[in-house]
C-alpha cells in the first residue's frame, strides 16, 4: 500500500487539487484507493461528495489514522492519498509520519519557494521521502517559463528533490473539480490530463524504485 501525503504550509499551492486529480486517475485505472481528508476545510471531501460515486473511498479527519490505514491495508487498498491543511502543525506532522512519500505542491514564486521549507523541515526530521511538484505554472513556450526555471534553480541550490515535470495553470484543472471529476475524466487527452498522467507515472516509478531498494536492503541485512 502506497501512502502519499500532500503537504505544504502555503495555502492554495494545489494540495487538494493534486490529490483529487490523482485520485480520479487511480479510480479510472481501477486502483483501490482511499482518500483521507485531513484538512478541516474539507476540500477533498467536498469534491468527493459532488462526485457522488463509490469508486474512491473517503475518510475524514486525522483521528485514528493508524487504525484507518490498517483497515485500508486489510481491505486491499493500493493507494492512500492524504490531503492536509496549509500549516506544519502536529496533525500534519502526524500524517507525514505515516507517509511513504510526501508530495509538496509549489507554485513558482518567491513566497512559495520560501514557504515549502517549513514542510521540508518536518519531512527531514521524520526521515520521510519527499518531492516538490511545481503546480499552477505558466505554460511552456518551447522552453520552461523563467519563473519555473528560477523556482527549479532555487530548489537545486537548497538540495530539494523536485519533479522534473510541471502542472501548468489550466482552467480545465479547476473546472473538472467543480463537477466532481478529474481532468482525465472531463478533458481526456487534454494537455492538463497528460500532465497529471505523467505525475502519476512518476509517482508509480518512485514507489517501484523505493520498493526495489528496500528489497535489496532486506536481502543484504
Ligand atoms: N494547475 C492549476 N490550474 C488551475 N487552477 C489551479 C491549479 N492548481 C490549483 N488551482 C486552483 O487554485 C486554488 C487552490 O488550489 P487547492 O485548493 O488545490 O490548493 P490547496 O493547497 O489545497 O489550498 P489550501 O492550502 O487552502 O488547502 C483552487 O481554486 C484550484 O482550483
Ligand atoms: Mg486544500
Protein model, in words:
The protein has one domain (2-137, 145-215): P-loop containing nucleotide triphosphate hydrolases (Rossmann fold), CATH 3.40.50. Strands 3-2-4-1-5-6-7 form a seven-stranded parallel sheet, sandwiched between helices. The chain has helices at 15-28, 43-51, 65-74, 90-97, 110-125, 146-157, 171-178, 183-186, 191-220; strands at residues 2-6, 33-37, 57-60, 79-83, 101-106, 130-137, 167-168. The longest helix is centred in the last third of the chain and has 30 residues, at 191-220. It has nine helices and seven strands, in the order βαβαβαβαβαβαβααα. It is globular, with a radius of gyration of 17 Å. It has 221 residues and is α/β, with parallel strands linked by helices. 43% of the residues are buried. The chain binds adenosine-5'-triphosphate and magnesium ion. Adenosine-5'-triphosphate is lined by residues 11-17, 39, 41, 43, 86, 135-136, 167, 169-170, 173-174, 177.
In short:
The protein is of the alpha/beta class and 221 residues long.
Number of strands: 7
Assembly state of the chains shown = single chain
The strand order across the widest sheet is 3-2-4-1-5-6-7
Uncertain stretches: none
Report the bound ligands by name, code or SMILES.
Answer: adenosine-5'-triphosphate, magnesium ion
CATH superfamily: P-loop containing nucleotide triphosphate hydrolases
Shape: globular
CATH architecture: 3-Layer(aba) Sandwich
Order of helices and strands: EHEHEHEHEHEHEHHH
- By DSSP (H or I, 4+ residues per run), the number of helices equals 9
Q: Classify the secondary structure makeup into a structural class.
A: alpha/beta
Mean pLDDT: 95
Q: What is the domain tally?
A: 1
Helix content: 40-55%
Protein name: ATPase involved in chromosome partitioning
Pfam families: CbiA
Organism: Microvirga lotononidis
Domain CobQ/CobB/MinD/ParA nucleotide binding: 4-175
